[in-house]
Structure formats: C-alpha cells, structure tokens
Amino acid sequence: MSVKYFSITELDKTDGVITLYTSSDTTAWNYDDKKASENYLALSDQLGITPKDMVKSKQTHTDIVKIVTRQNGGDGILHPVDESQPYDGLITNEKNLLLCTVEADCVPVYFYDPIKKVIAMVHSGWKGTVKKISEVTIQKMKSKFGCLSENMLVAIGPHICKECYEVGQDVFEEFSKSFSSQELQKIFIPKNQEKFLLNLEEAIRVTLEENGVLASNIFSTGICTFHSQHKGFKFCSYRRTKSKTERMLTAIMIK
After folding, report:
1. Three-state DSSP class for 30?
2. Which of 33, 52, 34, 56 is nearest to 44 (CA)?
3. pLDDT bracket for residue 32 (50, 70, 90)
4. Could you tell me if 141 and 112 are in contact, meaning their C-beta atoms sit under 8 angstroms apart?
5. Environment class of 71 (CB within 10 Å of its CB; exposed 0-12, middle 13-18, buried 19+)
6. d(CA 23, CA 11)
7. For residue range 112-127, what is the model confidence (pLDDT) as tens digits?
8. Confidence at residue 121, expressed as pLDDT on a 0 to 100 scale
9. Dihedral sign, CA of 149, 151, 155, 161?
10. How far apart are CA 246 and CA 255, in angstroms?
C-alpha cells in the first residue's frame, strides 16, 4: 500500500523541507478511525521515518499553537492527545519530525524559516482565521526561535475557495471584529442581503503581510477542496460530502 500525496513545490525546492497534502484517495487520518494507523504506517514508510516521528494537532478551531519536540512523537498518531489541551498549530526546529494537521475545507498553512530552520503547520478554518492563528504562529516563531518575518516562506494549501464558500451575516460580523472595513471589502463578496462569499485565503494573506511576511514569499496551491480536481484527484470537502470522518492530511518536515 502507498499513500498518494502532492507537495508544495515552492517549499520543497529549497531542499530544506518535505511538504505534503493528500487527496480523497486516502481519507482516514484521525486517531479514532480504524484505518488511520495503517495509513500513517504506509506514509511513514514512504518518507523513511516511523509513526513515532509524527505529531498531529488536536483541532478545535482555536488560535493555540504548540511547540513540539521529539518527546511529542506519536501524539495523535500512536495515542490520543489530551482532550482538555487542544491546539490547531504545531511548531518545531527538529529534523525528521513530521507536523500534521487535517482538513476538509479549512485552510492548511505551512511555514518555513530557511535561516533558523524552523517549521510550523497550522489548521485555519474561519474561526482560526478570525482569531489570526497565523499571527500567533509568526509571533511564537519569532519569540521562541528568533525567526524574522521577512525570512519566512508560507504556503496556503488546498481549501474551499471564495467562489464556493457561502457564509451568513454572523460570520461577517465576527470578521468585522478583527479586520478593518477596507480589509473586509477584500475578504467578503456580498451575495445578497443575508449571504456572503468568504475568501479565507485573502484573510490569511492580509494577516501574514500585516505581520511582516513578504508578499513574494506567500504561495498558494490554488486548489479548491469543493470543486477542484488536480491530476485527476479530488480533495476532502465537508461541504461537498457532509462526511464527518473523511479528511485531507497536510504536513511538513525538516529534512
């Protein structure tokens, strides 16, 4: 068995990291899914590591980002993580430690500082985006590892696009608490008096650039989980399938 995955070209070509995102060909990645352990074992064989060299976030749409080390190996993979301590982002400076998040329309955000050799993997749904989890990640990379924003390379993985993501007035109001009126005009497209189309990628780009990441260092796969096909493969989308278990694995590792 092998796991079909794609990579973020702009990050992998630095030769400092390995990145990946899976297709709807393999969808079991949560600890309580019976097939997950088999999938992680197959993937680890392909990457030349073991499941003990992987860490998965405990996602509840927070803005909490956790620094992990080799001691966290297997968290969320070989054993469940503490339900009372959720986190939606992971940071490390250790080699051969795969940081994993899962998504089904939410935005995976990959961070790499090639100078300090620090990586982060972040799950940013609309709630995490409102809370600016990318800003939390940047600030923690700076304070804990001495990273500089201008050195960071950031990639935005497959997620539901602005043409497919319809939201209500309640979501708009939440964003209005964190973003300026000028920024809201870039992030939301009014559909009618009650509905909007939400551009999560633009909201994350705004946050990244406000925190000093260079626009030229922000990359995107341009893949929509709801409607896109990439090389014949589809991607996990809760809005399309309504599945509570099917997820896309997104990950990054320092070589």
Report:
1. coil
2. 52
3. confident
4. no
5. exposed
6. 19
7. 999 999 999 999 999 9
8. 98
9. positive
10. 28
Tell which phi-psi region holds residue 105, choosing left (phi > 0), alpha (psi between -120 and 50) or beta. left
Query: What's the pTM value of the predicted model, to 2 decimals?
Result: 0.97
How far apart CA 66 and CA 53 sit, in angstroms, is 16
Q: Are 54 and 103 in contact (CB under 8 A)?
A: no
Summarize the chain as % helix, strand, coil (round to 5): 30, 30, 40
Q: Phi/psi zone of residue 9: left (φ > 0), alpha (ψ -120 to 50 degrees), beta?
A: alpha
Task: Say which residue the tokens 């959720």 belong to.
Answer: 86
Q: What confidence score (pLDDT) does residue 192 get?
A: 86
**Per mean pLDDT, which range of 188-192, 196-200, 251-255 is the poorest?**
188-192
DSSP 3-state assignment of 149?
helix
pLDDT in tens, 217-229: 999 999 999 999 8
Residues, the chain? 255
Tokens standing for 155? 């990639």
User: What distance, in Å, lies between the first and last C-alpha atoms of the chain?
Assistant: 24
Cα dist from 135 to 21, 142, 244, whole Å: 22, 11, 28
